[in-house]
Each structure stands twice: as structure tokens, then as C-alpha cells.
Amino acid sequence: MTLAFLDLDDFKKYNDRNGHLQGDRLLTFFGKLLQKAVEGMNFTVARYGGEEFAILMPNTTKEDAYAFLNRLRKEVNDTYFEGVEHIPYRCLSFSCGIAEMEKDMYESEELIHRADQALYYAKAQGKNNVQLYDKHNMCLDEIKFKQDLEALEQQVKFFLSKDVYTYRHSKRVFKYALEFGSRLDELTDHERQTLILGALIHDIGKIEVPRDILNKRGKLEKHEWEIIKKHVTWGREIVAAEKRFDDLLPLVELHHERYDGKGYPYGLKGEEIPKLARILCIIDSFDAMTTERPYQPTKTFEEALEEIERCAGTQFDPVYAAKFIAFVRKHYLPLAEMEQLN
């Protein structure tokens, strides 16, 4: 038995702009989408409260549920409903948490609690995504590095009003850095913390890039690309304003340097680039290659890993590229393959 909770993203913003009657129509529309999606399956769909829905899936593993719901999420993203173009994602979207009944659960309330925690985790990752309950991740999510992380979170949230995709990208890179960094035994605790915090704030300089360039769908003009490249310098200036974040400056400024010396802003080469910046470069590039935008194709995880492998020793540090590839293959690729099969 598997339970999923789905929460319509930014429903309050939609209500505030379009009115409660239109909000009710959206809830009805979304409920019908869910009912249609489970036709012919032994699944039960219900409205759980407010803009939250539940799907109960008997005889279904959490992996199968993930594949089904992530596919549904993408279909919902491409389904238009009047007014959704004015909310942050400019499309209909939901966050989803999934939990599976396990032998050590002594009552159904625990299943509900775990699905709810997974939903909270999905929303914390920037919304419009599906998350499986994992006790390890839930515990890590609660460790906010206290004041430092909270302060950086507030800075990154500025993107919500300007470029929600940079916000979500920053949250995903943060998540990858947290999980990958915890498996790099050669890092000290301080290096691990620096990597995680740097991952969260690495693109803060894009707050200075004009909105029309950040959100441009076509190919950037040469002068526009030069402006984009300045985000690493602007980011350094923003972060340097607070002395306590000095350790993060190399990650913010140097995560676009290349191992072969053909990156920017300085053209540093090999181990001239600080170790943590070399690691962040790989994580950042992987997420950029696999990031979803409505109506635009993306690389699969496997295609992105092949690209990292191909560019190891030129764009990427070959040692950390190999370690990251192994990490993704073990912890992310099984779910991605399950999704493709379904």
C-alpha cells in the first residue's frame, strides 16, 4: 500500500489574483484530471483538504508510484487552465510526497505522517516535484545550519519574484551537494558545510541580470551572454557584503571555471581551481542539463551522465566527475529508469 499527497502549487496566489470562485473551478478541474489519470487502476483519489489531494494505491510500490506521479506532474505542467500564467511557474503544477506502508509501521497514521513529511520536503525543494519519503533526507532537511542557512535562504527567495527556475535550480543543486557531499569521505565537516551553503547561493548574482535575458527561450545574443557571465562577479560582490560568508566566495565566483582552463571569469586550470568549486561545477552542470521547463526538451539523467563522462578532464575534474557519476547511478538512476518504463 502506497499513499501520495499532492498539493497545488501557489494556490493562494492564484486565488488572490483570480478570486475564490475561479479558485474553486481550478480545484474541480484538477480533481477531474486526477480522476481521469487513475481510470482503469485500483487507485482511490480524494480531496484531503484545501488544495491538497490524496491518492491511495494498493499493491503498488513507492517506485512505481513515483514513476506514475512524476509522469502525471509533467502532463499537468502542459495542461492549460485560465490564469495559471500569472503564478510563479506560469503553468499548472503540484508538489507530491509519497510513502509506502512498511512492516515496522504499527498504525496507518504513520503512513500519513510519512507521506506528509515527503510532501513538505518536496515543497522545500522548490515545488513542482515528487519526493519519496526517506528518513535520511528528512533528517538532513531539518539541519538548516541555523542562522547561516536561514540567511542564505532569504537571499535565494528573491528569485521567486524574478526567475522561479533559478530558485528551483539553486534548491536542487543544494540538495545534490548535501547528498553527494555527505558521501565524500575526503571532505572535512567544514568543507562539507561550505559546499552545501555555496551550492545554495552560487547563482545569487543572477539577481542582477535583466529578467528578459534570464527568461529568454531562444539562443542568447553575444552581448546577452556576456551579461550572463557577469553573474559570478556580481554574486561575489553580494556575498562579500557579509564577512561570515567569505568561505563561500570561491564557489560563487569560480563554479564556471573549467578543468582545461577555458572557463570564466579567470581561465583557471586544473587544481588552480579550488576543490569545492570543481565539485560544484559538476553538480551545477548536471542539474542545468536535466532541468525541466514547460514545452522544452531536456537531457535524461543517463544522457547528462554520458556528457559528464565525455567532458571529464576537459570541462570537469576527472576524479570528482567519476565519483559523481557513480553517486547518481546508484541513488537517482534507478528511479529515472523506472519512470521511463512507465
TrEMBL record:
<dbReference type="Pfam" id="PF13487">
    <property type="entry name" value="HD_5"/>
</dbReference>
<dbReference type="InterPro" id="IPR043128">
    <property type="entry name" value="Rev_trsase/Diguanyl_cyclase"/>
</dbReference>
<dbReference type="Pfam" id="PF00990">
    <property type="entry name" value="GGDEF"/>
</dbReference>
<feature type="domain" description="GGDEF">
    <location>
        <begin position="1"/>
        <end position="135"/>
    </location>
</feature>
<dbReference type="GO" id="GO:0016787">
    <property type="term" value="F:hydrolase activity"/>
</dbReference>
<dbReference type="InterPro" id="IPR029787">
    <property type="entry name" value="Nucleotide_cyclase"/>
</dbReference>
<keyword id="KW-0378">Hydrolase</keyword>
<dbReference type="InterPro" id="IPR003607">
    <property type="entry name" value="HD/PDEase_dom"/>
</dbReference>
<dbReference type="InterPro" id="IPR000160">
    <property type="entry name" value="GGDEF_dom"/>
</dbReference>
<protein>
    <submittedName>
        <fullName>Diguanylate cyclaseand metal dependent phosphohydrolase</fullName>
    </submittedName>
</protein>
<dbReference type="InterPro" id="IPR006675">
    <property type="entry name" value="HDIG_dom"/>
</dbReference>
<feature type="domain" description="HD-GYP">
    <location>
        <begin position="144"/>
        <end position="340"/>
    </location>
</feature>
<dbReference type="InterPro" id="IPR037522">
    <property type="entry name" value="HD_GYP_dom"/>
</dbReference>
